[in-house]
Amino acid sequence: MTEIPRNAVQRTAKLASLPIGVAGRVVGGWGKRLIGQSAEEVSSQLNAKTAEQLFAVLGQLKGGAMKFGQALSVFEAAVPDELAAPYRDALTKLQAAAPPLEARSVHRVLAEQLGASWAKRFKEFDDVPAAAASIGQVHRAIWHDGREVAVKVQYPGADEALLSDLKQLQRFSRLFQALVPGAEIKPLLAELRERMVEELDYRTEASHQRAFAKAFDGDEHVLVPKVVASAPMVVVSEWVTGRPLASIIRDGEQETRDHAGTLLSEFHFSSPAKTGLLHADPHPGNFMLMPDGRLCVIDFGAAARLPDGLPRTLGLMTRLSLEHRSEELLDLLRAEHFVRPDSEVAPDDVVAYLGPFVEPLRTERFKFTRKWLQQQAERIGDLRGQDFRTGRSLNLPPQYLLIHRVTMGATGILCQLGAEVPARAIVSRWQPGFAD
After folding, report:
1. Which residues form the Protein kinase domain (predicted)?
2. CA distances from 160 to 40, 63, 64, 157, 167 (A)
């Protein structure tokens, strides 16, 4: 493969094959039922093949399609186990793998970005990528001064492919909504569009990474690799080797799960106060546990600018919900435009809706589980329930959308880890408005 398929018609046809393929397999499944296979056998086969196609199509296209798959992958903990198992493996693959570019294409990008004599800046350069992501892939190399480095190279055509994908994926949002009932897909796509335009310029990513690396330099809990060099389509940073969170999710000891979850929570809530930025790409592929016990954080292409730290309003809302101060909570929600102007909603219903979400803060330690997250998704998605009706009366103002997505993504990882975390102490320390 030399570059991302750019042609909009070609890419749309591949994306369209997802729902068409699902429909075809459903028809085929009915045929198997007629010849005697059980419903369970047929359902299992359909899910497995659909998951396989999901990875194949999104992985090949890269760009916005793969980025969307990565965003969905952190929500898989909210999907009931009997439905999620095949998708879990397929989506998790998207967090760290994709068909690679050929070496000649990589060399062409490096020459364009670092100059014709780019090879002289390295003592060694491995043409085989060490990792691949949505709009770029990473190569291991040795910088001219002997430092081991990671060289992230953007796929040629990523800009055209990205915008085309996000436009086409909007058409298929209902299909993906069925896979991830706990996520609001259309707002997720709209927000991804804004963020991924920023991610196309690796100089912005390098700027974010430098800010995080400076803020966490010498930190005993978090490691951020330093940037060595950057260009619009290439960023070179220090190489790090650690245990990916995906590996810990798969077979980590409980103590390791708890440690990783605690560090992730601390990083999520502390970084806006320390850096004025929020790391906005929460999926397991962007975090590793180092041999010395620190959490290594990579990939800073998506970041929310929060110069004043996390909004105080969120802390106030959380505290009022915990303390069942329903009238004050509803007044705050209305004042901050979290309630639709044309909606009538009872204060007690708002507390009942938000209460389970703040459950992790009611005790000194809370164990995040897939079952807990699934219960929340089912509760707010039950068309017959009061929580569903309450949710339709609420609104998420645009300035809170990214923070909400990142927090939900981090929560999804905690549930995948099954981590027990001192969440209340972390939020009390870092979330303005909660404890003050």
Report:
1. 124-436
2. 42, 9, 10, 6, 11
Q: Both tokens of residue 182?
A: 């706990």
Query: Which helix (H) or strand (E) segment is 422 a member of?
Result: none
* Tens-digit pLDDT profile for residues 16-45: 454 433 333 333 332 333 333 434 443 444
- Phi/psi for 291 (5° steps) reads -55, -30
Cα–Cα distance, 245 to 164 (Å, whole number) = 31
Topology, domain 103-158+197-238? Phosphorylase Kinase; domain 1 (3.30.200)
The residue ranges of every structural domain in the chain are: 8-95+159-181, 103-158+197-238, 242-436
- Which three-class secondary structure state does DSSP give residue 143? strand
pLDDT one-digit tens code per residue, 169-227: 555 555 555 444 444 556 656 666 666 667 778 999 999 999 999 999 999 999 999 99
Count helices and strands (H / E) in the chain. 18, 14
Burial zone of 154 (CB within 10 Å; 0-12 exposed, 13-18 middle, 19+ buried): buried
3-state secondary structure of 295: strand
Q: What is the pTM of this model?
A: 0.76
Report the C-alpha dihedral over residues 4, 10, 12, 14, rounded to 10 degrees: -80
Q: Where residue 64 falls among pLDDT bands split at 50, 70, 90?
A: very low
Judged by phi (left if over 0) then psi (alpha if -120 to 50, else beta), residue 276 lies in left
Mean pLDDT value across residues 37-62: 47
Of residues 70, 47, 128, the one with CA closest to residue 301: 70
Helix (H) or strand (E) run with residue 203 in it:
helix 202-215
DSSP string, 322-374: HTT-HHHHHHHHHHTT-B-TT----HHHHHHHHGGGGGGGSSSSEE--HHHHH
Q: Compute the mean pLDDT over every residue in the chain, rounded to the nearest whole number.
A: 78
Angle between helices 158-171 and 63-73 (to 10 degrees): 60
Q: What are phi and psi of 213, to 5 degrees?
A: -60, -40
Q: Tell me the average pLDDT across 97-110.
A: 82
N- to C-terminal Cα distance for the chain?
55
- Tokens 């998951």 -> residue: 51
Q: Mean pLDDT, to the nearest integer, of 400-411?
A: 86
For residue 20, what are its two tokens?
């068409």
With residue 130 as reference, give the H or E element that holds it: none
Q: CB–CB of 419/258 below 8 Å?
A: yes
